[in-house]
Amino acid sequence: DLLSGGRLDFGVGKGYRHSEFAGFCVPAEEAEARFQESLAVIVKAWSSDEPFSHEGRFWRYDDIVVEPPTAQKPHPPVWIAAGVPDSVRKVAALGANLLLDQFASTEAIGERIALFKAECEACDRAFDPMEVAVARNIYVACDADDASAALARQASIHDRMIERSRGPDGSRRSHIMAYADTPGASEANVLFGPPEEIIAGLQALQAVGVSYVLMSGGEPTRANMLRFAAEVMPAFRPDS
Hints:
6-stranded parallel β-sheet, two-stranded antiparallel ribbon, 8 strands
């Protein structure tokens, strides 16, 4: 945060893969409690001008100070990943920003944004559409062959994620994997194609309330970003 002059955004999620917990010998059943306690400690550490102590179920600290302090006050923006309604409600109650996953359909994204807005209002919190971000794999293809090759790479990544997200009994442990065996699952909710298709997909997200998109995927990365800037972004300028 200091090196960037106050540009750090802090993104967190409690995790969903069995292997993530097994690797650290942590019961997955403790995920929610550990997440809530650790986030509280981090925010307290950033926000406290004086030494503070913490005694919780998993961690204990006595009279500690985090130095140097963050550039942003009281702390950098906190983004929490959420994919189900109950998690969206918790993000609103915590006063954090909402990060929606790259797997949900445009319709589901719209429903979650509407829920988040309602929950913010119920907590007497002003709703800001820029406090909701949606991740999407985006690749501005040069031609049909380029798009097909990019989708093939994405399918390989998708299949690897499915396998790594299974529990020890082979079951899926997350809503994210629920669509894994549906037709075209590896191509679902990715924006790979010519500029006009990318623009249409982003406009569909915009229509359900999305103002902030996190772009990922689509190698070679630099060339993809340059094409996106030159051929897609002009459609979203205020005067366009």
